[in-house]
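Morning run. Coffee first, then this:
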Amino acid sequence: MALIVRGARVLRGGEFRYEDVRMEAPGGDRTIDGRGLTLAPAFCDLHVHLREPGFAQKETIRTGTLAAAHGGYTTVCAMPNLDPVPDSEEHLQAQLAVIDLDACVEVLPYMSISAGRSGQAAVVPPGDLSRVAGFSDDGSGVQRDDIMRCAMERVKAAGSFIAAHCEDDALLAPGGCVSTGCGARMGLPAISNESEWRQIERDIRLVEQTGCRYHVCHISTAESVELVRRAQKRGLPVTCEVTPHHLLLCEKDIKNDDGKYKMNPPLRSAIDREALWEGVRDGTISCIATDHAPHTAEEKARGLAKSAMGIVGLETAFAVSRTALDGIVPPERLLALLGENPRQVLGRAPVQGDWVLLDWDGLYTVDPQSFASMGRSTPFAGMALAGRVVMTIRGGRVIYDAGL
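And here it is:
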């Protein structure tokens, strides 16, 4: 049995060529006309919130992985702000049981850095990490230096890595909800650049001491990019990711008091966004990750000050990234940011038979009501973007087909 994609522009070894691609597939033979389309290795997202177990009113494994398939992803890494927190083998297995039952793409959970994500005691990694992405307390920065150092030592010994949400609570204004510039303009408490980069600075010192592999989540400031750049030049095992929304938007795009613009880190200044573009251009930033963070409609309808933090992003990631980086990086680099490079952070090779078929220049108008995700809050609603996911293939089986 075979699935054949004919005449597509195919990315192989960092270069494009036109060819027919044949792959083993379950079920009967099928031929797809790929002329005028781009076929690339499927995407991998290092940072999603699937909300289950514990918060199924926001998202489930089933709806979140359907959204991933619609976005061209066949592997996603699920953050641990769940109930129960996956901080032990028992709690991890409870999460894996739901994944095995309902996921339509590969889901690799993060275990937490600290017990209960409390920041008070480093977890002890289990012996089998074959289905674990890494370790993260995403949503919270680890405040105590001794706890982060202990976690780094244990994670390094286990052969894994830390994905850090960097936020120094001592530098946060109470109720901070937007960037400093936007806060001044709208009269709202702000989340300063320093609250992010100070903790990255601290963590890089700990990386120097421990040798632990370290990945910065959703980097957003010019100072943060420069810290990572310097660490990499010194040969330290430091990587980072950027979200599509931080690449396309900045604080000036926040036009009104609407929860769809509330995320953490917030949309920063145009200068910060330019630093993110340069970080992508020079390779300091190697990965695009969505930070897909669904909430209920009610939780996102309370304005900037009171809405829950986070927006959805899996289904818009390619179009937003392709639009944001047009003219900044070539197509092959964009695809590496979405697929190959995140897999390298995980230490995993591309999966045979996992592909995404793209209409590179096709117009995509964002309609949240069409999302597979239960989350509908996005600042891109109604926006016309360049780039459309046409089909996602996992193991030779079509798991999403937008219709050719």
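The first strand starts at residue 2 and ends at 12. Good start to the day.
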